[in-house]
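Hi V.,

Quick status before I head out on leave. The structure for the redesign project is tokenized and pasted below; the design run finished overnight.
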């Protein structure tokens, strides 16, 4: 994950991409996975993926390279957060665990984001939680919020959804990987065109979820217990839970 070596010469640190290329080519590992995030300031914003691809292509075994062309994977720690987990987590797991692979570059398919969020946060499905799929019993301004949603809040993967109520109270499922997985079902309420829930006994952080202005998604606002900090997330409707 953003590998490299700096060497000191003439009184200053120097970055030599060829050292990394030689180490990759000489590796005796059966499989090699390497990530070069774009905009890696620690290594002087150098483009290093092209050299690594040439070096690994000379090996006999399979390899996975996620290089500077990967959208949204940026900074020296770009491979350590939720954005990377959603886009490449399942691909990396498959590359490392597959019983056998042909030699050469391993490709990551698109469209695995929901599957990755589901594996991170909903395996197993929370006991006793039953998803509210029909929004007809909700006020008209929040009907679209029925079902399950996922997204990124900063680098945290989140899942939020309406559950079947107990009595007159709404229930909200909220789980987050920050990277520690936390969250459960919380009591909620519909107010001012939003679904709101406090994430624990007061004082505690709270969330507010509302339909997006374009009608295609949803938006979440997380507020700290003291009200002094807010975080925002754009949510996408989730696929099947099974």
């Amino acid at each position: 994950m953003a590998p490299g070596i700096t060497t000191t010469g003439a009184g200053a640190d120097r970055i030599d991409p060829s050292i990394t290329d030689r180490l990759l080519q000489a590796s005796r590992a059966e499989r090699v996975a390497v990530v070069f995030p774009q905009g890696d300031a620690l290594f002087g914003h150098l483009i290093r993926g092209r050299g690594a691809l040439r070096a690994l292509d000379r090996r006999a075994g399979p390899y996975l390279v996620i290089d500077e062309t990967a959208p949204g994977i940026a900074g020296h720690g770009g491979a350590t957060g939720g954005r990377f987990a959603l886009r490449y987590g399942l691909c990396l797991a498959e590359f490392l665990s597959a019983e056998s692979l042909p030699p050469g570059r391993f490709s990551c398919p698109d469209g695995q984001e929901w599957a990755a969020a589901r594996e991170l946060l909903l395996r197993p499905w929370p006991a006793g939680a039953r998803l509210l799929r029909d929004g007809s019993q909700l006020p008209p301004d929040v009907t679209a919020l029925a079902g399950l949603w996922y997204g990124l809040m900063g680098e945290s993967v989140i899942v939020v959804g309406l559950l079947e109520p107990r009595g007159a109270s709404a229930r909200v499922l909220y789980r987050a990987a920050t990277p520690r997985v936390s969250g459960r079902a919380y009591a909620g309420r519909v107010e001012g065109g939003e679904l709101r829930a406090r994430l624990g006994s007061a004082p505690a952080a709270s969330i507010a979820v509302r339909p997006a202005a374009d009608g295609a998604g949803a938006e979440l606002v997380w507020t700290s217990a003291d009200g002094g900090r807010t975080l925002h997330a754009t949510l996408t409707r989730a696929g099947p839970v099974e």
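Above is the designed sequence. The mean pLDDT is 91.

G. will cover questions while I'm gone.

Best,
W.
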